[in-house]
Amino acid sequence: MIFTKRQLLKNSVGLVAVSALGLRAGQSRAAVSEFRMIEAGGASGESIEKGYIAPFTEKTGIKVLRESPSGLGKLRALVESGDNSVPLLEVGSPELYQAVALDLVEPIDWDVVNPDPIFDEAKHEYGFGYQYYSTVMAWGEGQRAPKDWAEFFDPEALPGKRSLPDYPSYILPMAALAAGGSIENVYPIDLDKAFESLERIKDSVSVWWQAGAQPPQLLQDKEVQYAASWSGRVAGAPGIEFSYQQGLLDLAYFVVPKGVDPELKKAAMGLLHEMSVAKNQAVAADVISYTGPSTELEQLLPQDRIGEFPTTTANKSVQMFNDGQWWFENADEVEQRWQEFKLTL
């Protein structure tokens, strides 16, 4: 956690003496002096601080207090407790659809955000898609590169220990591809075939990771030879190679918790505007090799590192896009089968 949790100061303490009417993304003064946001933490949080909060605070004078970690549980707790002091909270794409179904979020005020050009999938009615990331195949330097997930899942073709995520949403699409699917038709996932792939590879999996820092460390320590990893964790890491081929591209979203203070929501839309600005996204991408949703970002990224970023034209074209709606609709069945599978490990 970057800042300790604190309540937003209101009325004569927290409000400055200006009108809140017409507050939009570009105004230099606002009716609030600070607000809280809950994000994933780590280097991702630092990228938010440098890329988006810094220019937002410079323009508006509003301080943004970051807290972490985030997730659907935090969102639900805020709404059910009546805590209306957090106007922005980060969720993954499956969590976004669940939050909408549970009536935990308010629509994004897109007219107030007034975004610069961004990809269509980032402009959800209830979520601002601010950061792309990928789950990719990675391997230790000197190991033979897998050409696809079918080969990655074949321990005879590629001998060595693996590390896979202990999250079905980050490995079942790859397992489905290993069974003969394609990135164009991986959804709806054939769960029978996906779990058959996992059965074939499970004896070669020495670590089912739960923290994103584990795969690169395991690869660098040579405890495993191959891993499925989040791209930002292995991009540029010494002693590690990776590929976006058949990667799983996904978006992290910021949502507005239901019942938030209206003035805080207005102010927060200004921060979302800063997240749509290509030059700000380039600053954030320099902190961690994830990318924002601007359609104009690629030309601003460092060209000597261009292969690290998930949404360049070359890298985006060889990946599948995660289907948050499918995960929401199939969550119960997937969780039951995943837990049954884990009992066999």
Characterization of the model:
The chain has 345 residues and is of the alpha/beta class. The chain contains 15 helices and eleven strands. It has helices spanning 11-14, 42-60, 72-81, 93-101, 110-113, 149-152, 168-178, 191-201, 214-220, 231-234, 262-275, 278-287, 313-316, 324-329, 331-342, and strands at residues 34-38, 63-67, 88-92, 105-106, 123-124, 127-140, 162-165, 205-209, 226-230, 240-257, 320-321. Strands 1, 2, 3, 4, 5, 6, 7, 8, 9, 10 and 11 form an eleven-stranded mixed sheet that branches. Strand 5 and strand 6 form a beta hairpin. Helix 2 packs antiparallel against helix 12. The longest helix is centred in the N-terminal third of the chain and has 19 residues, at 42-60. The radius of gyration is 21 Å and the shape is globular. Mean pLDDT is 90; it is low at 1-30.
Which short descriptors sum up this protein?
15 helices, 19% strand, 37% helix, alpha/beta, 345 residues, globular
Unreliable stretches covering 5 or more consecutive residues: 1-30
Kindly provide the radius of gyration, computed on alpha-carbon positions and rounded to a whole number of angstroms: 21 Å
Query: What share of residues are in beta strands?
Result: 15-25%
- Give the SSE order as H and E letters: HEHEHEHEHEEHEHHEHEHEHHHEHH
**How much helical structure, as a percent, in the residues?**
25-40%
Q: Biggest sheet, open or closed, and with what strands and sense?
A: 11 strands, mixed
First-to-last CA distance: 34 Å
Supply the number of helical segments: 15
Shape: globular
Mean pLDDT: 90
Number of strands: 11
Structural class: alpha/beta
